[in-house]
Amino acid sequence: MSKFVLIIARSGRQLAEAARACGYEPLVVDLFGDVETEIACRANITLRPRHDFNFDAPSVAEAVRSIRSSYGPMILVWGSGLEAQPHVLAALAQRWDTVGCSIGTFFKINDPRTFSRTLAAHRINTPRFAFGMLPKNGQWLLKRRGSCGGFGVTRTNRHRFSGQREYFQYEHTGVHLSAAFIVSSGSVLLLGVCEALNLQHHTELPYRFSGAIAVPQWFYRLRTELTKMVEKLHNAFTLRGLCGIDFIINGDGNISLIELNARPPVTFDLLAQPEHVFEAHLKADTLAYASLPAVAQVRAMAICYAERPIIVTKTLNWPHWVTDRPRIRTRLLPGMPVCSISAAAATVADTRRKLETRVGELRDRLHNELPT
Q1: How far is CA 175 from CA 142, 256, 313, in A?
Q2: Which residue numbers in the chain have pLDDT < 70?
Q3: In the CATH scheme, what is the code of domain 108-282?
């Protein structure tokens, strides 16, 4: 078996580091090409994103042709960023051995009409969907089909219609949580639960992904109910490998599913050792996992977004708890992700405080040390 693995994601660093940790030689096609990705992988092809920060399909095709020409056939692991472009993944699957959920599953989950009907048929609780005219009563979110990271979610109270690639979803209140799980040989292994952190609030993008913290208390409290929900989702969509869900729990303890991610979620390395998760993802068709080794500390991460135009210089002294560092001379506009920040401690409270302190420290450093 080839030890090379092709990774395609909007940001390939997490999957590349996990692949490297369990003995693979990752080859990455992504849109960032940050310093840590370059260190972790055998080769990194960084593509210029489209104006909407999606992949340019011809560029993807050319990149993977180049990799196959140089390294031969290998398995393909895909991550975030393809939700709005399932046709790109479908084209790749014709020539590559893909890992994880099938293309049919991916299309089904990313079609909001099919998704909402399937959830209703399997009695999975979710906020109401609406298409066409905005309903008159209640608070609704306008969501762009195929968006990820919360960038395609805005609030709306105006009298309007959704476009062809948009839909409405009722806004529920409560605690925003996520869970990562592995479906292998028909069994479900829940890895853990994270609570969403909003450390850089954005008025126009209220659900932009800003960070997450693993919360064991939520995991122990919700494990049985979430496992049953994931089993229903597997029966509905035929899931495979490492996936994730976003959900809300209200004051009465009721869970509402918000999104199902049919690919590795960004929080998987907060919940288990990345190499064990990656191996389980690759071997989901043949092996069933009763458990994975526990993580010793509570982990958290945050994304630092640019608050003004900046140019990354070689004089910036990056702290050791920063990853996804942009290359020198990279120009970043307001709202663009700069890097990721990590923290770990013995308790949830200590981890949260450490992460908040680090976010504030880095924002000050970027403001004071980098030119516009």
Answers
A1: 20, 10, 39
A2: 1-2, 159-163
A3: 3.30.470.20
